[in-house]
Specification:
single chain; mainly alpha; Fumarase C, Chain A, domain 2; Ribonucleotide Reductase Protein R1, domain 1; 3 domains; two-stranded antiparallel ribbon; two-stranded parallel sheet; 20 helices; elongated; amino-acid biosynthesis; Argininosuccinate_lyase; argininosuccinate lyase activity
């Protein structure tokens, strides 16, 4: 027996081969029965309603098919294993419909293909998962806004290049995260709109010679619009690429935030104390409070990014047409990435909502730091009639001399400043002791920075109020999107129920 015969003997002589079943068909069936069964039923119902309204099948035939659809044991299908008797979930369901309604059930496939059905199922499934992810992003934003509101006057040092930069507030930092998430929200909403378009009626790729109503199916499935070009409806994969890109951007930004939270949780920083439900101890070191919830969040966000990148890579360099690369094999990576984003956002909201902040440590650190020396340079410009560059040189010399003498920022004297001025501009300053103390006060530094977007507490409260209004608008948008999806499903079920209970 040659090698070819040995393979055939092991694999079988008819479709599907044993290894092909193991590697491709069985895993695909398992994913499909879990994620695609409900969208498939919705498509069956919407297409049936449209065919009946357009008189492409008779009311009596429509009723028989509707009864068959309603009689399907979906739970049994969900619990079934791939048998190899049919190719995929579509043919499994079609076989059961044929068993229930007879040959007339075959007319349910008038003017449609597995191609437009498959893309539509992907879009419907992704639509629900994007809604869930958006809900969790908004949940996290809500907790961040509450956290920021508690810390509008919590002084802290802001960092650039990982080095102490300028005094700010914890609210100022957190609101930057909030605004980043707000942009993510707008990107998600835009991606959702592009996603929520109907391919149905494109059939294989060129529409159909039957006089169907594509817009009617679009409405019945709760889509926002129609992908007009039927080739684009089948070939286009940018809808999922856009969702993946937005998901990736969101996960990257959140990962940077989590990295800071982990740093703040160290004993050396001593800023953030993660609440007991979200820390673990060591099996050998009793003193340990490991912020594992944040570690897992960081790791899961990396996994989320990896899944999005896998999906994007699988689309890359594929032919512009119907192709498996952008469907069964790739879709689960998209679902997993959105599922991880959903989970991490909810976990972070709980961690942040229960964390404690060492306000005094942050304040002491800000007062002892030279992070507020920019204000001294600014004050010299105002009082000494010198250029900012000259003022900058004087302030820099003050810092250098103070550090060499072991003097903290709040201990800097007027004599030390005048010595620096003498070295730079050759004369003492008009600056008095009161102005010096004010210039070196981090609280004053924050207060005078009241320009739009600055850390001034009143400015922060203004921004928080606006962001809360924005949050309400986004929540209302999500509520409308969910209701539209739910109402479309309710309407489909209601129409079929009426058909089955009354004469059509």
């Amino acid at each position: 027996m040659n090698y070819r015969e040995r393979i055939i003997q092991s694999e079988g002589r008819t479709f599907p081969g044993k290894t092909y079943t193991e590697v491709v068909l069985s895993p695909s069936y398992d994913e499909a029965k879990k994620h695609f069964l409900d969208p498939m039923m919705a498509i069956h119902k919407a297409h049936l309603i449209m065919l009946t309204e357009k008189r492409l099948i008779s009311p009596e035939e429509g009723k028989r098919i509707a009864e068959a659809i309603r009689s399907l044991d979906l739970q049994s299908i969900r619990e079934s294993d791939y048998s190899g008797e049919v190719e995929d979930l579509f043919f499994q369901v079609e076989r059961e419909l044929l068993n229930q309604a007879g040959d007339i059930a075959g007319n349910l496939h008038i003017a449609r293909s597995r191609n437009d059905m498959g893309i539509t199922m992907c879009r419907l499934t992704l639509r629900d998962k994007v809604q869930t992810a958006i809900s969790s992003v908004l949940f996290l934003k809500e907790h961040l806004l509450e956290f920021a509101n508690e810390h509008v006057e919590t002084l802290m040092i802001g960092y650039t290049h990982t080095q102490q930069a300028q005094p700010t507030t914890l609210a100022h930092y957190i609101m930057a995260v909030v605004d980043s998430l707000s942009r993510d929200m707008r990107r998600l909403m835009s991606a959702y709109h592009q996603l929520n378009q109907s391919p149905m009626g494109a059939a294989a790729i060129t529409t159909s010679g039957f006089n169907i109503d594509r817009e009617r199916v679009m409405e019945l499935l709760g889509f926002d619009g129609l992908i007009e070009n039927s080739y684009d409806a089948i070939a286009g994969a940018d809808y999922i690429a856009e969702v993946m890109t937005v998901t990736q951007i969101t996960a990257i930004s959140l990962g940077r935030f989590v990295q800071d939270l982990l740093l703040w949780s160290t004993q050396e920083f001593d800023v953030l104390r993660v609440s007991d439900p979200y820390v673990q101890t060591s099996s050998i070191m009793p003193q340990k409070r490991n912020p594992v919830s944040l570690e897992h969040s960081r790791a899961l966000l990396s996994s989320c990014i990896g899944n999005t990148q896998t999906a994007l890579t699988m689309i890359h360099n594929t032919p512009f047409g119907d192709i498996n690369d952008t469907e069964d094999d790739m879709q689960p990576f998209a679902w997993r990435s959105l599922g991880l984003l959903d989970k991490v956002c909810r976990l972070l909201a709980c961690v942040i909502g229960t964390a404690e902040v060492n306000k005094e440590k942050l304040r002491e650190r800000a007062k002892g730091s030279f992070a507020n020396i920019t204000e001294l340079a600014d004050e010299l410009v105002r009082t000494e009639a010198i250029s900012f560059r000259k003022a900058h040189h004087i302030a820099s010399r003050v810092v250098k001399n103070a550090i060499s003498q072991g003097i903290a920022a709040h201990e800097v004297t007027l004599n030390l400043v005048n010595e620096a001025a003498q070295e730079v501009i050759g004369r003492p300053l008009l600056l008095d002791e009161a102005k010096l103390r004010q210039s070196l006060d981090p609280e004053y530094f924050v207060t005078v920075r009241s320009l739009p977007g600055g850390p001034n507490p009143d400015e922060m409260r203004r921004m928080i109020a606006l962001r809360r209004n924005q949050q309400d608008e986004h929540q209302a948008w999500l509520k409308d999107a969910k209701e539209k999806s739910q109402q479309s499903q309710y309407h489909l079920d209601s129409v079929l129920e009426q058909w089955c209970e009354h004469n059509v």
